[in-house]
Design a protein that fits this description.
about 160 residues; mainly alpha; 7 helices; about 80% helix; about 0% strand; transmembrane helix; Tryptophan-rich sensory protein; membrane
Length: about 160
């Protein structure tokens, strides 16, 4: 594919997953906001504005990583790296559905743990294809690892 098409595909995949995640979860619903606000959250849980900033940066890095993987030479390793990358992106959409629509804190924790494992595998696989693409996924992995601790505490307390 061409550079512009690859960039559009990677960007559309990442931001499409974010959009889809918001659409399938009632984040903006008043009762959901009240429910989430009243959950007993740990002191180290970031305030809402931090999530917006962090996810904007992470989405950009994931999109760039996906672009680099799409631009890499076609191979089985590249295909596997792209599949793992896509699973990570899809998992991002699954979290708000489980937590905000279904109000399943346990499922949210399971998704976070699954994303850490998948993200780690994605980094290791991408490293064999494009080292820069792998490095671009590291902040996502770090944030997910932190998210597991936050989500576990929220689940345990509620």
């Amino acid at each position: 594919m061409g550079r512009i098409l690859d960039a559009a595909l990677a960007t559309a995949t990442v931001f499409g997953a974010q959009y889809f995640g918001r659409e399938i979860s009632p984040v903006e619903d008043g009762s959901t906001r009240r429910w989430y606000h009243h959950l007993n959250k740990p002191a180290f849980s970031p305030p809402a504005p931090v999530y917006a900033v962090v996810w904007t940066l992470l989405d950009g890095l994931l999109g760039w990583s996906g672009y680099r993987l799409l631009r890499a030479e076609t191979s089985c390793k590249r295909t596997l790296a792209l599949c793992l990358w896509a699973i990570c992106v899809a998992g991002v959409a699954g979290f708000p559905f489980a937590v905000f629509r279904k109000r399943r804190l346990d499922a949210g924790l399971a998704i976070c743990i699954g994303l850490v494992v998948t993200s780690g595998a994605s980094i290791c696989t991408a490293k064999k294809v494009d080292r820069c693409a792998a490095k671009l996924q590291i902040p996502f992995f770090v944030w997910l690892t932190f998210a597991v601790f936050v989500q576990e505490e929220v689940w345990r307390r509620n």
